[in-house]
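for the writeup, i need someone to sanity check this before i put it in the appendix. the sequnce is what the collaborator sent (i think, or maybe the updated version? ugh). structure was predicted straight from it, no edits. if anything looks off just tell me and ill rerun, i have time this weekend
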Amino acid sequence: MPPLFEEIDSQASPLGEISLRRRRMPVFGDRDIYEVKLGEEFLMSSMFVEAEEALSTLGLAAVEGEALSVVVGGLGLGYTAVAALKDERIAELLVVEALDTVIGWHRDELVPLGKMLNADARNRYVLGSFFDLAVAPGTGFDPNAHGKKFDAILLDIDHSPTEFLNAANASFYTTDTLALMAEQLKPNGVFAMWSQNLPEQNFEALLRTVFAHVVSHVISFYNPLQNCESTNSVYVCQKGG
């Protein structure tokens, strides 16, 4: 019988000790649950992935055209990236991740979705800080094509627009910085972002200082641990033409 708990890997990172764990819980039967922790803080779990997948489906549903070039900010356990690649219009997907350890887990296929991402020729990992690359329009997200414009940018890094994985990320959530990032979008391009909280009116107002259209979606999913419905949100913003 597989162990009920296993730490697969643990390494130091610029943000602290980051670890990948696998566990089995009776409420989920024989399914393996993968978790990532940063120090003592839980970053992500494969227990609940509906909102991460909705980030891709809702964001890409707002994009028009074919042969799409898309950026995903934050690799995590890979659910946002894999959901994006289900859209047959995508020609290339750049997954920007600041921690080489997390990219290594996927390249070495220590996490279940690593095999799918590695097998899809449209997918490419980019090691770097999303927040640094977002404000460098002369170089941008693609190290092989400086100044490249994208059809969509999908962001899943911070817990919310006011709860940051790293305090330095706070400077991203301003009109000036969001406008710099938007320079890397094509006309009518889409920026979408996940949040663990319900939509925040102040943040919606901020987004409207940069984007022509802003819509917030509430994602509900069943939480078997608490035997109730939980909610996350996805902001979908479209640049003007």
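The mean pLDDT is 94. The chain has two domains: 5-44, 49-238.
thx in advance!!
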